[in-house]
Design brief:
- The protein is α/β, with parallel strands linked by helices.
- It folds into two domains: about 5-165, no CATH class; about 175-340, no CATH class.
- The protein contains twelve helices and 13 strands.
- The chain has helices spanning about 5-10, 35-40, 50-60, 80-85, 135-155, 175-180, 190-200, 210-215, 225-245, 255-260, 280, 285-290; strands spanning about 20, 25, 30, 65-70, 95, 160-165, 205, 270-275, 290-295, 305, 310, 320-325, 335-340.
- Strand 12 (about 320-325) and strand 13 (about 335-340) form a beta hairpin.
């Protein structure tokens, strides 16, 4: 619950009471202990000349919750999070606003870690704002990982409440934004990824293949890294098909990867192939291995050759792949026929 400085004063020295509802505690606090209405305009603090550390200490004596909003513009570091822990008592809680890049908002380029600058696509490096689509898929995953790592000291000390995801104004109720919300937490396995596809979380992607091939990958991917990567690729395909449906994009998937609209999920074009190798294309036997089911309104015989694919990872003969058919120009959908180990080719079979 949010209060301004004047209403907080009405509670006296003790501050607002904590209310218990079942097993949950209802906490009270403000969007920042350094908010202007508290420091300059209000009478909450006994002195305007207090240091930042003194203000936080006094704040904790009155309230048990504070939101950290500065993390929206610049991601925190583990050292800063540890300082927040050291300067607050047990029982105090922080809600942290997620870094703008993680919620597809325009982001200050200088808030990106210096060692990831080379991961920004060359044609977008001079722009005034940074978007997820400007980064390679691996770099964007690394941004999420570093943000999570920075918050670990808060979590381990029991000080972390919630992470507030603030999306831009265009993020209105529609299939692609619901999919984005579902994708905030990547699937931890291919089993979970298939469940999401079965529940039509991605409205423009339909899985038509054999789930056994995908489930086999979980034996090689105990941490779920491949599943998370595959999900990011599927989000891009979903965004692409949605853009085709709306008439916002007229070219193919590879062109979309190279020119993903700002604020939309993107992925590195190098992980994508529009077709198979010549040796596969010319071999009836190898082509047959890449023929997968589609609805009969897509193909009368209910199957089609799927040469376009994403390279999920490199790992010997396993090296998982994801084959699909782009029917966005007709039915408005992407048909995913195969997720699994690298299919045989002229070099492996």
């Amino acid at each position: 619950m949010t209060y301004d400085a004047r209403s907080l004063l009405e509670f006296g020295e003790a501050g607002p009471p904590t209310v218990t509802v079942g097993d949950c505690a209802v906490r009270y606090g403000t969007s920042s202990w350094a908010d202007r209405s508290l420091v300059q305009e209000g009478g909450f603090y006994p002195r305007k000349s207090m240091t930042a550390r003194e203000r936080l200490s006094y704040y904790c004596s009155r309230l048990s919750l504070a939101e950290i909003a500065t993390t929206y513009r610049f991601p925190p570091t583990p050292d800063v999070a540890r300082q927040w822990v050291e300067r607050t008592p047990e029982g105090f809680c922080f809600d942290v606003r997620a870094w703008s890049l993680l919620t597809e908002n325009p982001t200050f380029p200088d808030s990106l870690w210096e060692d990831l600058i080379d991961e920004v696509r060359p044609e977008t490096r001079d722009r005034r704002r940074l978007y997820p689509a400007h980064l390679s898929g691996d770099a964007y995953e690394e941004c999420w990982a570093r943000f999570e790592h920075a918050l670990r000291p808060l979590h381990e000390a029991g000080r972390l409440g919630v992470v507030v995801l603030q999306y831009p104004s265009w993020f209105t109720p529609k299939p692609e934004t619901r999919a984005a919300l579902a994708a905030v937490q990547s699937p931890g396995s291919f089993a979970e990824l298939l469940e999401r596809l079965d529940e039509h979380v991605l409205s423009c992607v339909a899985f038509t293949g054999d789930p056994k091939n995908a489930l086999e990958l979980d034996d090689f991917d105990p941490l779920g890294t491949w599943a998370a990567r595959a999900w990011d690729m599927l989000r891009v395909l979903d965004g692409y098909a949605a853009a085709r449906r709306r008439g916002e994009f007229s070219k193919g998937v590879h062109a979309y990867l190279g020119h993903t609209p700002p604020g939309r999920p993107g992925y590195a074009p190098g992980a994508h192939s529009t077709q198979e190798s010549d040796s596969v294309e010319r071999s009836p036997r190898l082509r047959k291995l890449r023929v997968f089911p589609v609805p009969r309104d897509v193909r009368p015989d209910g199957a089609i050759f799927m040469g376009a694919h994403f390279k999920i990872a490199r790992k010997g003969l396993v090296s998982p792949r994801m084959h699909y058919h782009d029917d966005a120009g007709h039915t408005g959908k992407i048909y995913l026929g195969y997720i699994g180990k690298h299919l045989p080719n002229a070099h492996t079979n």
